[in-house]
Amino acid sequence: MKNVQIITDGSCIGNPGPGGWACILRCGETKREMYGSEPHTTNNRMELQAAVEALRALKESCNVEIITDSNYVKNGITEWIHKWKRNGWQTGAKKAVVNQDLWHDLDEQVSRHKIEWQWTKGHASHADNNRCDELAQAAARGQLST
Fold first, then answer.
1. Would you say 58 and 4 are in contact if contact means Cβ atoms under 8 Å apart?
2. Can you tell me the distance from the alpha carbon of 105 to that of 48, in angstroms, rounded to the nearest whole number?
3. CA separation (Å) from 131 to 15, 16, 97, 122?
4. pTM of this prediction?
5. CB under 8 Å to 82, separation ≥6 — which residues?
6. Which residues does 62 contact at the CB level (< 8 Å), separation at least 6?
7. Residue 24, helix vs strand vs coil
8. Residue-wise pLDDT tens for the chain (146 aa)?
9. What are phi and psi of 121, to 5 degrees?
10. Which domains does the chain have, with CATH numbers?
11. What's the angle, vertex CA 44, arms to CA 20 and CA 134, rounded to 5?
12. Cα–Cα distances in Å, from 13 out to 31, 57, 75, 79, 139?
């Protein structure tokens, strides 16, 4: 299996408001940047969308390292999702899990790969995370076409 590193970020102007997502995929010497936007969304949805779109872009099963600055995404997919599924997609407070559609999409994409999730501090010293932040913010502001 190929080894792929994915870096993701999401952004929102207001929360909710216009949002953008971005990801960088690295495989060997190959680097691919992807981004997109939504006119009315939340930051958490954009963080999730970045991970979904990055994994969806992989055409075969891979060993994947995903680096995110979102504890919501990392903890949601590695810890919380198992309980949500057992509880019929309800939280411990018996409320519907927010962003269920994207959690379903992410769960489906994750099942295709062997994934290691890493958290990095946002707006810090991780160059690819900073680049994703720039792309996601620009997409949210409509400065990039999707």
1. yes
2. 9
3. 21, 23, 30, 11
4. 0.95
5. none
6. 1, 2, 3, 4, 27, 113, 114
7. strand
8. 999 999 999 999 999 999 999 999 999 999 999 999 999 999 999 999 999 999 999 999 999 999 999 999 999 999 999 999 999 999 989 999 999 999 999 999 999 999 999 999 988 889 999 999 999 999 999 976 54
9. -70, 130
10. 2-71+109-140 (3.30.420.10)
11. 35
12. 27, 26, 24, 28, 10
**One-letter amino acid of 45:** R
Among all chains, which residue has been given the structure tokens 């963080």? 47
Nearest to 16 by CA among 37, 35, 36, 43: 43
Tell me, what's the pLDDT at 146? Answer: 47
**How far apart (Å, rounded) are the C-alpha atoms in residues 106 and 126?**
24
So which residues are the catalytic ones? 9-10, 47, 69, 123, 133
DSSP 48: H
pLDDT attached to residue 144: 63
Contact 67, 129 (CB under 8 A): yes
Torsional sign, CA 42, 128, 8, 141: positive
What's the token pair of residue 17? 């408001």
- 18 preceded by a cis bond (ω within 30 of 0): no
Please say whether the dihedral angle defined by the alpha carbons of residues 145, 101, 70 and 40, taken in this order, is positive or negative.
Answer: positive
